[in-house]
Amino acid sequence: MTVVFAAFVAALRCHAQNAVSYTVAPMPFNTGYFNEISPVMGAGGAVMFCSDRRLSWLTDQTSFDGRRLFNIFSVTPIDSLRRNAATEFRNDRTARFNSGPFCLSNDRKTIYFTSEVETGRRTRNRNFVNRNGIFIADLHGNAMLNVRPFPYNSAGYETGHPSLSADGQTLWLASDRPGGMGGSDIYYCKLTDGQWDEPVNPGAGVNSAATDNYPHIHVSGRLYFSSDREGGAGRLDIYSTYMNGGMWTEPIPEPAPINSAADDFAFVIAPEQPKGYFASNRANSDDIYSFATPIRRMATCDTLQENSYCYRFTEENAASTDTVPFNYTWRFGDGVTATGAVVDHCYEKPGAYLVQLDVENLVTGEILYNEKQDSLFITDIEQPYINSPDVAAAGVAIRLDAAQTHLPEWNIDEYYWNFGDETMQTGSEVDKTYTGPGTYNIQLIVSEKAMPGGEARERCVCKNIIIRMPGETENY
Hints:
By secondary structure, this protein is mostly beta strands.
């Protein structure tokens, strides 16, 4: 059933500030002699997966030609140590056909799974080649109901390995349909007016002349997939790419111990937490492994807002008394004055300021000091703050800091930086060198220590930084 950066960019993996480390462990529900593949994150911390395991010591599920069938199972955290505690998900084809690999909609009410296209009498012929397609079903408990075929299945080629975007508007898949670049390619379909558009090949930025399959689209937009292209660590390796400036970056292999000399595939990562799962046959059978990494990226992150200390001051009565000439003098409370019925003034920093207005009658010469006054309290926006250049050069170190973070009454414990290129650092002040040009979305995640009996708070802001090749711009 084993079938979810270029040299210049690869320096990301080697640079000390950008080192990506993983811890990997086999899942306790692996059988060791049957196969477990295609992990998916279920509700409440459950892990769903495909397996050709026996349903009992006396019962096997096999196809018409004697092949062991893969079906979908789920294990909750409390039962993860007990292999026989896995719950099987069933549909009207599980008795004679495979179910999986698969994916779930974000609300976990719909399942997209791979299965054979043909179900008629001719499938019982051992010489019949039954292609895979994608099927969609409604989830009710562990029952898959109302099974319907994906509109672009075909008896002439393989289609499978679905991965649905978080918003449900894009379905990624693998297929060896005509017109591809290799053994199988990654494709995507857009949902338009409730109907799936025809699959689109993203091209050489993702696919190769080799076999590319098991796509997994992360909520951040990063695409993970498996490929047996040259340059990997083993036979089938896990790669990732992301859209930068309207182009897919050259796919880079994940480092060890994610990739190995064996087949490594079906990589999935949690939306916001630095953990996930993948499948590998590094221990002879296909098994599922968990991984953890320090790389975090929040699915929801506020865009950085710039603080403004500029105000317009207006003497509202000026229009009604324009038959008598007056002179208006404003004292802004910071040592600066201005004249006029309408004036603009920018303060240098937050603070409490007493704004006063003196009015002079130009006919009589009488001056009414402090004719009006009011207190102005200026505060920064309550947010983490990213202080960085907007444009910088590749290969040149830049300084980023969070010194202007304004979160009153927070006991800040950590400043976590995600630089938008699969690298991270911690600290209120960091140095960063981007190795390739593009537009990168920086996230600053600020967290505090939990108070006794309470939960730790966390806030995230993001901003884009443009990285250009040296010489493309003079001022950074």
